[in-house]
Specification:
single chain; 177 residues; 2 domains; disordered N terminus
């Protein structure tokens, strides 16, 4: 049996988005902001500047800019429902549905791959992600996946290692560019 709400109170579906700050988005924002704060602190621990960035730019500057942008968006998130309400959109409409199992599977896969990154090395980690993620999401064209899984990681590794002089861990197999 379910409890009935008084006629004066809004329906449960609308209860989340009442007021200036959306409570669910506020919690998510606080989690993101605490992660940003931790990562911002970590950027202050960088030692070495890549030769391409050695012209009066601190090594922490680029990551701190990215983290600042993320913090700005996270700070605005609790107020997004106000903007959407003016457009007649209910921010909680999609949230009424359960999380799709593929989302949870993707999260578990990425956590496992990131945990194995130290062993695999950066290049092999990118290749594993590029090989398995499209298959996980339902792409069946193996030729396209193989091209993507070789060209993209190798291009990224070459840009970082040759152009930016940023070298990633080769892992236990010693595979790096």
């Amino acid at each position: 049996m379910t409890e009935q709400q008084p006629a004066s109170s809004p329906p449960l579906s609308d209860a989340r988005a009442i007021g200036l700050v959306h409570p669910v988005d506020l919690v998510v924002s606080l989690i993101i902001l605490s992660g940003v704060a931790f990562l911002f602190y970590e950027t202050t621990q960088f030692d070495e500047v890549s030769p391409i960035f050695a012209q009066n730019i601190q090594p922490s500057m680029y990551p701190q800019i990215v983290l600042t942008v993320i913090a700005i968006f996270a700070s605005l998130m609790p107020f997004e429902h106000l903007l959407l309400a003016k457009k007649g959109t209910d921010i909680d409409k999609e949230r009424r549905h359960a999380i799709h199992p593929l989302t949870l599977t993707t999260m578990a896969f990425l956590v496992a791959v990131v945990a194995a990154a130290e062993i695999l090395g950066m290049l092999l980690t990118m290749i594993v992600i590029c090989l398995l993620m499209p298959r996980l999401w339902g792409l069946r064209k193996l030729t396209h996946i193989l091209v993507f899984a070789t060209v993209f990681p190798v291009t990224v590794a070459l840009v970082f290692s040759k152009l930016l002089s940023v070298y990633f861990d080769a892992g236990i197999f010693g595979i790096a560019l």
